[in-house]
Design goal:
The chain is mainly β.
């Protein structure tokens, strides 16, 4: 499937990558066949990306026409095989946005079907709070920006940074056709800071079997220019495969 908008530039004003260690069998049940969980120390890696974008536009648009919004994506780190070998990325069963623009054009002019949500929160250099409320989802996050790194999945913040940078392509179900929509995040200025989870709740993860999802860590990104582009190919996933995957928790 081709899209009218081949790429978009933007600035990540703030991004929280909140990570869970997820039971591999539970993760596999959430994926369409053709994708498999990417494991770290015996656990699948899942989470929610809470991202505030600014100056989002096509490369040929003037800056005055750029727009921004709070967005969220629940994600599972995945692998798949193609003729070039094993690839890494994330599967995103559900995306949300505070802006009606991606809700209206996502999956039509540009990849990524979005559902509308309301976001509230506050932010200082050392503390970030974000809350999301939608008809199908609730998220609340309170994160401190710190210097020390704590994680059972990743030994160092550099290990975590490298893992998520390598999985920069996200796949999500298309609006009305077989296969997956893909978006790749590219930047020459990738930079992360460690955070400490003060309080996090997600109805997506809370709906999974008890004890299968354990909060692990959080990475913070701020003021990073990026380009969203459409990857050249997608894993061989059909509508029947998508239908066979577990329903999204709500």
């Amino acid at each position: 499937m081709s899209y009218f908008l081949p790429s978009l530039t933007a600035v990540i004003e703030r991004r929280l990558l909140i990570n869970y260690a997820l039971d591999p069998s539970v993760a596999a049940d959430l994926l369409p066949r053709g994708l498999r969980p990417q494991l770290v120390n015996g656990s699948a890696v899942a989470g929610v990306c809470l991202i505030r974008l600014a100056d989002m536009r096509t490369p040929w648009m003037p800056r005055a026409l750029g727009w921004g919004a709070e967005n969220a994506a629940h994600r599972i780190a995945v692998e798949w095989d193609d003729e070039g070998g094993t690839r890494q990325g994330v599967y995103i069963p559900v995306r949300h946005s505070a802006s009606w623009v991606p809700v209206a054009v996502g999956g039509r002019l540009f990849p990524g079907v979005h559902r509308h949500a309301r976001f509230t929160g506050s932010e200082t250099p050392n503390r970030i709070r974000v809350e999301l409320s939608a008809s199908d989802l609730r998220v609340s996050a309170d994160v401190a920006v710190v210097s020390e790194w704590r994680s059972r999945l990743f030994s160092t913040v550099d290990d975590a940074s490298a893992f998520f940078r390598a999985g920069s392509t996200g796949w999500s179900p298309r609006r009305r056709s077989d296969g997956l929509d893909g978006l790749t995040l590219e930047t020459e200025h990738w930079a992360v800071e460690p955070g400490r989870l003060l309080n996090v709740e997600s109805s997506f993860f809370d709906a999974l079997p008890e004890g299968s999802a354990r909060l692990d860590s959080v990475l913070v990104m701020r003021e990073v220019p990026i380009v969203w582009s459409v990857p050249p190919r997608s894993p061989q996933i059909t509508r029947a495969m998508l239908a066979s995957s577990a329903p999204t928790p709500g």
